[in-house]
Amino acid sequence: MAVLHAWRAARVTPLGELHSPPRVTAALLRLTVQVVLVASLWRGLYAATGTTGGLGRDQAVTYAVLAVLASRLRELDQYTGRDTVMQHMHYGTIVYWYLRPLPPQRYYALRSLGERLYGLAWALAGYAVCLPAGVVEPPGSAAVAGVFALSLLLGQWVLHYVMLVIDQLCFWTLRNGAALLILVFAQNLLSGVYAPLWFFPHWFVTMSGFLPFQATLSVPLSLYVGRIPLSEAAVQLAVQAAWVVALALFTRLLWRRAARRVISQGG
Amino acid sequence: MSMNALRIVWRITRLNFRAQLEYRAEFLMMIAIGAVWQVSVIVFATVLLTRFSGMGGWDSSDVLLIPATRMMAHGLFVLLLGRVHGLGRHIQEGKIDAYLLRPLPVHRQVQLDSFPTNAIGDLTVAAGLLAGALGRSHLDWTAGRITYLIAAILGGMLLEAALFTAVASASLRFPAADYWGNWLEELLGTFGSYPLNVLPKAVGGLLTYGLPLAFVAYFPAAVLTGHGHGTGAPYWLAAGSPLVGVLAYLGARLLWRWSLRHYTGVNG
């Protein structure tokens, strides 16, 4: 029974997407065009250059295309379904999260899980097309593939908590639109979505090492393309796991404090 | 627009600006967002320029003119015509139905919905980059070149406005079409900031004749820096980029008017 309830909560946003054909068509077209453009761009840039930033042409193309595919894991729109924390705070409906038999933190986690699984289906479908087409290279070995999968899982876990912190901000500030936009920018820049972090100056890479964003995407993709060797994988995975634990404890504290701020029907 | 209409626009804009000032933290954050978005474009362009010098046969000071032109055009678009972006939410909330009842054109009401605080950050960073690009440029900035650059920036603004107006027109029928607007913004930011001749011809053609991104900044910068004949498009077409912006905007406004006539609210 619990599994059934979990499934019902997890499928809310994916169902919303599937019932909106323009969104699915747009997502498909966007992913296809973005992959073609990104692959063309990096191939074009490497036409007159050898290895740079420790990345060869095929490594850079693979990194960039995988970054595009991974972006599908984050891009679901809860706003259209009017189920973001900000909207619930605005309309006062956040109180229902606290009146249901399902705790708000579990509801949020289940929604997030469903969204990420739906996004993963898109990313895997894209990968299944790109790999035989030669757009992306296969992982160097079975061990690399395994480490990459584990690192990607940890990275998505970190990203889930980071997004949660921004949503929890609404309990104090009511609105998080500006913070969310800054977060998306920071995540894109510091996780290597715009360009692999290896192309940035050394001080920039060092600075981003102190923030959780690098752990979300740059680490798993660098492991996949071989820019981080397997011998260094254990350290990187440990850092990712440390971020998961730290953010889990922090968000748990925030949930507890947030609950004290929600007043039902006049208190 | 009559003098009276201009006066109304000015008064509403002043009110909107004061409304934004009511929440100081949000006001400052919105300025920061505008700046941060533009900085992301600069970061991307700088990384590419540093790692891949001589991009597409262009000198790096010439390349810098592309993001500078595009960002100025984008900043002006956000300031003057940017409220068409994200119209789907207005439609979902039923605001359009209310606009239709008021004695002011719907398009003008959409633009006057709020003051775009982020445009302040957008334009500040863009002006800084443009000053930097002009300072590093080895070109002789004659009156003719400066006039063409201004025309190119205005044309780029109108072209961006045309693209977002077309998406907004689609949103009147399918509010979910807003999603295309987000993608458009991302594409313009990512692929509008460097010479498109680094891409394969087919892809470059797609970004010229499919999505006319090349006309925003790449073609004008190519004409100004003497690369106009190497763009893959006829020179007269590249040189006529500002005019393309004007024509595209006029076409988009006709599409908007047609779409609005066929708009059906949730109540039928």
UniProtKB/TrEMBL annotation, chain A:
Superkingdom of the source? Bacteria
Q: Which UniProt keywords apply?
A: Membrane, Transmembrane, Transmembrane helix
The UniProt transmembrane annotation reads 117-136, 142-166, 178-200, 233-255
Record protein name field = ABC-2 type transport system permease protein
Source organism per UniProt: Streptomyces lannensis
TrEMBL record, chain B:
Q: What is this protein called?
A: ABC transporter permease
Q: Which InterPro entries match?
A: ABC-2_transporter-like
Per its UniProt record, what Pfam families does this chain match?
ABC2_membrane_6
Source superkingdom: Bacteria
Q: Which residues form the signal peptide?
A: none
Residues annotated as transmembrane: 27-52, 64-82, 146-168, 206-227, 233-252
Lineage per the UniProt record: Bacteria, Bacillati, Actinomycetota, Actinomycetes, Kitasatosporales
Q: Which UniProt keywords apply?
A: Membrane, Transmembrane, Transmembrane helix
